[in-house]
Amino acid sequence: MKPYEIVNMIIDEEAYDQEEVTADFTYQNQDYSITFKKGDLELVNAWVFKNDKSLPANLAENIIEQIREDVKNRI
């Protein structure tokens, strides 16, 4: 079983001349959003949502890799 759950995924094909994929997910009872470049799935940014604010997320590399693979399989 995965330690996270992707709850929404958006493929933005017109973002600043760079196609991107954003996945919203829950992990350890917190809401996160992570964006990758669609072409090579390079990490663009990651945010955690706390108290109605978005803050830069500090995610472990293995979680980012798991989400990257999950996103890759979905697109």
Compact description:
By secondary structure, the protein is an alpha+beta fold. It is 19% helix and 49% strand. A 5-stranded antiparallel β-sheet has the order 1-2-3-4-5, with helices on one face.
Structure commentary:
Helix content is 19%, strand content 49%. By secondary structure, the chain is α+β, with helices and mostly antiparallel strands. A 5-stranded antiparallel sheet has the order 1-2-3-4-5, covered by helices on one side. The chain is globular and about 30 Å long. The two termini are 21 Å apart.
Low-confidence parts lasting 5 or more residues at pLDDT below 50?
none
Percent of residues in β-strands: over 45%
Structural class by helix and strand composition: alpha+beta
Q: How do the SSEs run, as a string of H and E?
A: EEEEEH
SSE topology sketch:
Elements: E1 4-12, E2 20-27, E3 30-37, E4 43-50, E5 53-56, H1 61-74
Antiparallel strand pairs: 1-2, 2-3, 3-4, 4-5
Task: Note the main attributes of this structure.
75 residues; 1 helix; 5-stranded antiparallel sheet; alpha+beta; 19% helix; single chain
